[in-house]
Design a protein that fits this description.
This protein is an alpha/beta fold and 224 residues long. Helix 2 packs parallel to helix 3 and helix 9 crosses helix 10. The radius of gyration is 17 Å and the shape is globular. The mean pLDDT is 85. Strand 1, helix 1 and strand 2 form a beta-alpha-beta unit. The protein contains eleven helices and six strands.
């Protein structure tokens, strides 16, 4: 990836097939001087072309689009662009799509009708190597049981308890969507130390990525 542009702003490709929604999301992103929307797309195919042309720092994909949806685009991005941070934009009632996006390696989820600040936080978190769940999406996954496709609640507690107390603190903050630099600030650690903890957490819990780690954190902290 090219990384932030000369101004230091994160370069974002935004894909949504509804022009008004796309314009609204772009407007929110452009309120942040640290974010620049470099391309907009109305389909998965256009999003893939924009990714190839611009090599952005973050991609925002609507889960469902007409000719090629966000899931198909995500699968192709993972195949061709590897770890490029990809956030899914979703609505209530798209639980099965969210579950499939997790399986495909999405880096987070934001609601179209959510707090605009969530969108900006998610973009910065993903660009910094974090994973972000809109709290509403996380609650929905837990309430519907879809999260158990990836980790059962009791299994999550057992995995959580294998961690050292410090690793548990780090995982809890990962579950809140914080990237490594913010975790380091919160816990007064060096960022390199946090990276070592994250590597150990993924290895010890068996999580394939930070999104699955966030689900483990959420399940482990859910009563019952």
């Amino acid at each position: 990836m090219n990384g932030p542009d000369a101004s230091g702003a994160l370069r974002v490709v935004l894909a949504d097939d509804e022009p008004l929604v796309r314009a609204g999301l772009a407007g929110i992103l452009q309120t942040d001087d640290g974010v620049r929307v470099i391309a907009q797309a109305s389909s998965g195919q256009e999003a893939l072309a924009a990714v190839r042309a611009h090599r952005p720092d973050v991609v925002l994909l609507d889960v469902r689009m007409g000719t090629m949806g966000g899931l198909e685009a995500l699968a192709e991005i993972r195949r061709t662009a590897g770890p490029l941070p990809c956030l899914m934009v979703t609505t209530f009632g798209e639980d099965e799509y969210v579950a499939e996006a997790i399986r495909l390696g999405a880096d987070g989820f934001v609601l179209k009708a959510g707090d605009p600040r969530e969108l900006l936080f998610a973009v910065h978190a993903a660009a910094s190597g974090g994973a972000y769940f809109s709290p509403a999406v996380s609650r929905r996954l837990l309430q519907t049981g879809l999260g158990t496709r990836f980790v059962a609640q009791q299994d999550a507690r057992e995995r959580f308890e294998r961690l050292t107390p410090r690793e548990q603190e780090v995982l809890a903050l990962m579950g809140d969507g914080l990237p490594n630099p913010e975790i380091a600030d919160r816990l007064h650690l060096a960022e390199g130390t946090v990276k070592v903890h994250v590597t150990s957490i993924l290895r010890t819990t068996g999580a394939r990525n930070r999104v699955e780690a966030a689900l483990i954190a959420a399940h482990a902290r859910t009563p019952g």
